[in-house]
Model the fold of this input.
Amino acid sequence: MTATEAAAKPATRSAARRARARLSEGKKAERRLGWLLCAPAAIVMLAVTAYPIAYSVWLSFQRFDLKFPDEREFVGLANYATVLTNGYWWTAFGVTMLITVVTVAVELVLGMGLAWVMFRTVVGRGLVRTAALIPYGIVTVVAAFSWKYAWTPDTGYLASVVGDGAPLTERASSLAIIMLAEIWKTTPFMALLLMAGLALVPEDLLKAASMDGATGWQRFTRVILPVMKPAILVALLFRTLDAFRVFDNIYVLTAGANNTSSVSMLTYNNLMRGLNLGIGSTMSVLIFLAVAIIAFVFVKLFGTAAPGSSEEGKR
Amino acid sequence: MTASKWRWGLIDLVVIVFALVPVLWIASLSFKTPATITDGHFIPREWTLENYRNIFATDQFVRALVNSIGIGLIATVIAVVLGTMAAYAIARLDFPGKRLLIGISLLIAMFPQVSLVSPLFEIERSLGLFDTWPGLILPYVTFGLPLAIYTLSAFFRQIPWDLEKAAKMDGATQGEAFRRVIAPLAAPGVFTTAILVFIFCWNDFLFAISLTSTERSRTVPAALSFFQGASQFEDPTGAISAAAVVITVPIILFVLFFQRRIVSGLTSGAVKG
Done:
C-alpha cells in the first residue's frame, strides 16, 4: 500500500509540474497576445504625448523666438524666471483657478440636481436625458458664439436684461459670462457621472432609512452621499482638470481682453501671436506641472479610486 | 400622484428650456435677414435662408466642412480599431502591464492639451505635418483613445463570452462563432464608442486652430473664428450662426437617435472603468 502510494506521489507531482508548464506556455501566449493588442494604442498615445512633453522641456531651456531664429541659444532656467515673474502669467493663473473653483463647485450642485431629475423623473425621462445631452455634445465654439451674441448689446436678448453697457467689455461681467458658458456646457457631463453613482444607491437602504424616520435631507447626507462618494470624486477630478484647460469659450467670448485670459489662452497667444516657442514651451511645462499637482493632491487627499483601479480599490 | 407628475413635468420643462435656449438662439439668428439680425428678438420677424445659401456658396465653409467630416471620421475609425484591440485585451486577457496601460490612458484623458500645442507645432512643422489632415488626426486619435479604451472595456466586460464556447460546441467554427455571436453583441458598444470619439473630434478647437493655417485642413470650429462677411463692412453674425447650426445638426441627430446608448457609454466608462 505504502509502496504504491509513494510511487504515485512523484508521478502526480510531475504531472502537476507538466500541467503548470503547459499552463505557463498558455499564459505566455496570452501575455504575448495582450501586449500585441495593446501595443499600437500605447505607442500612439506615448508618441503624441510623452515625446512632445519631453521636447517641450528641452525647448523651455532655450531662447527660441521664431521671429529671430538665429538667436536661438541655451539659456537654462531664464525662461522660467521670465514667466514666473510676469504679472500676466499670474493674472491668467488666478483667472484659471477662479474659473475652475467656481464652475466646478456650481456644477457639482447643479449636476447633482440634474442627475436626480434624470434618474427619478416620472414623466418624460427620455426627453430630459436627450435635452441634457445637447450641451454635452454641442461644439463648444458654437455655444460660445451663441452666448456672445446673446450678450452683445442690441443684437442679444440677454444684454438688455442686465441694463445698458456691454457686459463683454468689462472684466467682472466677462468672467461671469465665461463661467456661465462653461457651466451650461459641462453640467450635463457632471450629472451623467453622478447619475451613474446614484444608480448604485440600493433602494432598500433608502426605504429602511425612511422607515427609521430619516428626513429627506438626512437620507441624502447619510445614505446617498456616502454611497456616491467614489462617483463624486471621479466626477470632481475629471471636471477640475477639464476646467483648468478652459480655452474655447474665452477665445470666442473675449479673446482674453480685459485680463480674462486663462493660462491656455496665454500660452496660445504667446505661441501663435508672439511666435515665441521658448516662452510658450515654458508655459506648457508649467501647466503640465500644475495639472499633475492637482491630480496628485486629489488622489492623496481623497484617495480617489481612479477608474480602472477599481478592481482592487473599491470592491 | 398627478400632483407629483405635474411637479416633475415642471422641473423637466426647466431643464429642457435651460438646455435648449442657446441652441434655439443661434438657430434663430441664422434665419434672420441682415436688416433684422440686430433687433434682439428671440424669434425672427423676417425669415430667410440667405445665410445658408451664402455659406454654402463660399469655398471657405465647404472646405472646412469636408475637413471636419474627413478628419473626424478617419480619426474615429483609427481610434476605435486600436481601442477595440486594447480594450479586448484589458477585458479578456491577463498580462503584466495592463494596469500601466490603464494608468497611461487615464493620464492622457486628463492631460492639459495646451501643453502639447507648442511642441507639436514645432514637431509638425519640421515633419511637414503642420496644416495637413494627418497633423490633426494624430492628436485626435491620441485623445480619443483613452475614451475608446474606457468605454469599450466596460462594454466588453458585460459580454457573456461563454456563448462563444457554446457556439463552438454546437459545431460553429471560430470564425462563425465570432461573426454570429460575439460581433453582434459587441457592435452596440463599438458603435457607441465611435459616436463619443467622433463628437470629441468634431468639437475640438484648440488643436484645430493651432495646428492649421489655411483652408487645406482647417475644421469648421476653427474656420468659424475666421469668418468675415462677404465684404469688409458686412457683419459675419448671420454666416457664423448658419455655419454653427450646420455643424450642430449631426450632434442633435446623434443625441436624438442614440440617447440611451450615449448615456450608458458615458456612465459605464466612468464608474466601472
Remarks:
- The mean pLDDT of chain A is 84.
- Chain A touches chain B through 103 residues (CB under 8 Å).
